[in-house]
Design goal:
- The radius of gyration is 16 Å and the shape is globular.
- The longest helix is centred in the middle third of the chain and has 16 residues, at about 65-80.
- Strands 1, 2, 3, 4, 5 and 6 form a six-stranded mixed β-sheet that branches. Strands 7-8 form a two-stranded antiparallel ribbon.
- The protein is built from five helices and eight strands, in the order βαβββαβαββαβα.
- The protein has about 170 residues and is of the alpha/beta class.
- α1 crosses α5.
- It has two domains: about 1-125 and about 160-174, Rossmann fold (3-Layer(aba) Sandwich), CATH 3.40.50.360; about 125-155, no CATH class.
């Protein structure tokens, strides 16, 4: 049985939902453990056959705790079988949903000393009813500017689950 570490930097939970889907795709021959990067976990990478990091974008940025985690674990990240995916609402648009075309992944690669062997970009979810007043107002403004959903009574999941499953299969081969 292979051991897999699923690390997350999540704002609203869609990144964790995507990791749960990947865990299901991997199947019973993989033993998965989760860790929240925001809690600054100390990881013994030698205890895992594969590591997957999922991180969400909030207001145009990945969380600074992700970059701190990378700085603390750079040598291990470069030596282990590690993949990375980014979750954002911009990826709901065709042409902005791959590592090569995602502005957030490009920015990540400029800021980060680590360049993952395998990467993906997934569209996230819009959860207006769950946001506080400030976030709901700001996200509605951003969505209006980008021709997105502005009805604040709605929750919309943009994640392409088939794309996630395809990534899961690639991750198995890493």
């Amino acid at each position: 049985m292979e051991k897999v570490l699923l690390l997350h930097s999540s704002c609203e939970g869609q990144t964790i939902k995507i990791l749960n889907h990947i865990e299901q795709d991997l199947g019973e021959q993989y033993q998965c453990e989760y860790a929240d990067i925001h809690l600054e976990p100390k990881i013994d990478f030698s205890g895992y056959d594969r590591v997957l990091i999922g991180a969400s974008v909030r207001y145009g940025h990945l969380n600074k705790k992700l970059y701190q985690f990378i700085d603390r674990n750079l040598e291990n990240l470069e030596q282990a079988n590690v993949a990375f995916f980014c979750v954002n609402l911009t990826a709901r648009k065709e042409g902005k949903d791959t590592p090569a075309t995602s502005a957030y992944v490009k920015k990540f690669l400029l800021k980060s000393p680590w360049h993952p062997k395998m990467m993906a970009v997934f569209a996230g979810a819009l959860r207006y009813p769950r946001y506080n007043f400030f976030d709901r107002t700001m996200i509605k403004l951003i969505m209006k500017l980008t021709d997105g959903e502005t009805d604040t009574t709605k929750e919309v999941e943009y994640t392409d689950w088939q794309k996630v499953s395809n990534f899961s299969q690639q991750f198995k081969a890493l």
